C-alpha cells in the first residue's frame, strides 16, 4: 500500500483535505478509496505474526482493532480537525461513551452542560454514576456554574455547542481554561457546529467527538462516530477500550463516510446559506414568537458565536404561537420538509422536541431547557431555498 500526498505541514484548505486526506492506495492504484471488507489479516510467517503482535512490525491484526478503510476515514478526520489521532466508532453514541469511559474511573467526577443530546444526558446522568463516577449538570452558558462545579477529582468536562435543540452557544475557550485549572479533559460534541464551522481543538478543547451519522454522511445512509484527540491519550486510553470492548466502525460504513467527507463543504456551505436566509425571513413572521439562529445578531450568545464559529449553523429553532396544537398544524401542513428526529441530511427535516426527542425527560426538565410546546427544530437540507421558504410560510399560514 502507498500513501497519497502527505497533508501534514501543508496549509491545504479543508476542501482539499476532505478529498485527499488519509488516502492509502493498494497495488492497483485505484482512484476511489478501496473497501476492505475483511475481519482479519494473514501473515507470511510465524515470525511475521509475532512481530505484528508485539508491535515491532506495522500492520493490521484484526478489524476490531483497526482496518485499512476505517483507518483512511480516521486519517481524513484528523486532517480536517487538526488532530493527532482518532478512533472511529459504530455510532455517535459509541463515540461519546468511548470518550467519557476513557476519561474517568470510579471516584472521578464529571461536569456537563444540561442541554445535551438525550442519550448523552443518559450516559452522564445515569450510566456513569452506576460505575461510581459522580456527575454535576450545569447551565452551559453560565461560566460561573462550571467554575463552582469543578473539583480536584474532576477528570472531564463535557458539552455540545450549539446545543440540541435550542442552539445555545457555549464559550469553548473559556471552558478550556476552567478545565485546565483542575487538570481535566474538555470533551466537545461538535455535531451541531460541524467540523467546518467550529474547531474545538484549536479553541483549547482536548477531545472532539462526532456523530458521523449527521452532516458527515449527510445523505441518511449509515451510522458512525469518531473520537479525536492527542496521540498519547488515544493510544493509552482510547485504543485499549476499542480493542477490548468492540465499538469500532465497520469498513463499509467507513467507506460511505469517506465519500461523504468529499462533499461535506459543498453541502454544509449550501445548507448554512439557506438556513441563514430562512432564519432572516422567518424571524419576523407573525406566527413565530421566537427564532433562534447562531448566525443572527439577536442570538443570546451572538458575540461568542461570532468569536468561535465560522458561520451560523444548518439548524434553526423556532417557536410558533399557539403551543403544541399550532406546532402540529405546521408539521402536518409541510410538503417538502419531512418530519424526522434526525438532522444534517440532504433532505430538510423538522422535529417537535417536546413530544419526540425530549418527551422522556419530562415537563420540568424541558422548561428548564427552554423547550416549549411550540418549539420546532429545523435541519435545513439541499432543496431549492425558495421552495423551502414557500413550504414553511404556507405551513405557518395554515397554523395561524
Ligand atoms: C445524533 C447525535 C448523537 C448521537 O449520534 P448517533 O450516531 O445517532 O449515535 C450525539 N450527539 C449529538 C449532538 C447528536 O446530534
Description:
This protein is of the alpha/beta class and 400 residues long. Among the domains are: 92-212, Type I PLP-dependent aspartate aminotransferase-like (Major domain) (Aspartate Aminotransferase, domain 2, 3-Layer(aba) Sandwich); 265-399, Aspartate Aminotransferase, domain 1. 41% of the residues lie in helices and 16% in strands. The chain has helices at residues 14-20, 46-53, 68-81, 92-103, 118-130, 143-149, 172-181, 194-197, 231-245, 251-262, 264-283, 302-308, 323-333, 362-369, 385-399, and strands at residues 2-3, 24-25, 85-89, 109-113, 134-138, 154-160, 185-189, 207-211, 225-229, 288-292, 315-320, 338-339, 349-351, 375-379. The strands form three sheets. A seven-stranded mixed β-sheet has the order 3-9-8-7-6-4-5, sandwiched between helices. A five-stranded mixed β-sheet has the order 10-11-14-13-12. Helix 3 runs parallel beside helix 10 (251-262), helix 4 (92-103) packs parallel to helix 5 and helix 11 (264-283) packs parallel to helix 15. The longest helix has 20 residues, at 264-283. The protein is globular and about 75 Å long. It binds pyridoxal-5'-phosphate. Pyridoxal-5'-phosphate binds at residues 91-93, 96, 117, 120, 160, 164, 189, 191-192, 211, 213-214, 223, 225. Pyridoxal-5'-phosphate binds next to helix 4. It is an enzyme of class 2 (transferase).
Amino acid at each position: 500500500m502507498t500513501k497519497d500526498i502527505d497533508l501534514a505541514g501543508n496549509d491545504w484548505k479543508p476542501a482539499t483535505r476532505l478529498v485527499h486526506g488519509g488516502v492509502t492506495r493498494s497495488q492497483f492504484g485505484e482512484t476511489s478509496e478501496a473497501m476492505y471488507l475483511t475481519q482479519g489479516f494473514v501473515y507470511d510467517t510465524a515470525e511475521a505474526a509475532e512481530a505484528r503482535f508485539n508491535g515491532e512490525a506495522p500492520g493490521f491484526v484484526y478489524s476490531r482493532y483497526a482496518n485499512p478503510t476505517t483507518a483512511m476515514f480516521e486519517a481524513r478526520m484528523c486532517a480536517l480537525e487538526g488532530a493527532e489521532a482518532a478512533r472511529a466508532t459504530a455510532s455517535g453514541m459509541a463515540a461519546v461513551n468511548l470518550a467519557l469511559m476513557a476519561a474517568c474511573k470510579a471516584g472521578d467526577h464529571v461536569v456537563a452542560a444540561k442541554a445535551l443530546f438525550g442519550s448523552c444526558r443518559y450516559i452522564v446522568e445515569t450510566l456513569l454514576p452506576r460505575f461510581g463516577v459522580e456527575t454535576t449538570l450545569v447551565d452551559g452558558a453560565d461560566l460561573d456554574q462550571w467554575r463552582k462545579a469543578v473539583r480536584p477529582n474532576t477528570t472531564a468536562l463535557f458539552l455540545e455547542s450549539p446545543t440540541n435543540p435550542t442552539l445555545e452557544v457555549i464559550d469553548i475557550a473559556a471552558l478550556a481554561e476552567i478545565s485546565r485549572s483542575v487538570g481535566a479533559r474538555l470533551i466537545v460534541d461538535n455535531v451541531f457546529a460541524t467540523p467546518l464551522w467550529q474547531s474545538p481543538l484549536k479553541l483549547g478543547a482536548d477531545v472532539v467527538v462526532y456523530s458521523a451519522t449527521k452532516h458527515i454522511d449527510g445523505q441518511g445512509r449509515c451510522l458512525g462516530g469518531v473520537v479525536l484527540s492527542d496521540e498519547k491519550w488515544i493510544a493509552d486510553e482510547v485504543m485499549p477500550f476499542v480493542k477490548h470492548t468492540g465499538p469500532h466502525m465497520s469498513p463499509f460504513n467507513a467507506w460511505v463516510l469517506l465519500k461523504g467527507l468529499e462533499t461535506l463543504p459543498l453541502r454544509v456551505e449550501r445548507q448554512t446559506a439557506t438556513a441563514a436566509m430562512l432564519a432572516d425571513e422567518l424571524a419576523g413572521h407573525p406566527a413565530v414568537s421566537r427564532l433562534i439562529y447562531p448566525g443572527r445578531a439577536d442570538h443570546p450568545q451572538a458575540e461568542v458565536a461570532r468569536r468561535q464559529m465560522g458561520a451560523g449553523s444548518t439548524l434553526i429553532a423556532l417557536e410558533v404561537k399557539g403551543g403544541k396544537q399550532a406546532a402540529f398544524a405546521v408539521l402536518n401542513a409541510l410538503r417538502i420538509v419531512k418530519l424526522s428526529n434526525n438532522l444534517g441530511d440532504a433532505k430538510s427535516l423538522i422535529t417537535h422536541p417536546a413530544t419526540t426527542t425530549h418527551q422522556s425527560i419530562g415537563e420540568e426538565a424541558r422548561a428548564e431547557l427552554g423547550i416549549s410546546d411550540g418549539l420546532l427544530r429545523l435541519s435545513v437540507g439541499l432543496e431549492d431555498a425558495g421552495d423551502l421558504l414557500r413550504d414553511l410560510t404556507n405551513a405557518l399560514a395554515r397554523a395561524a
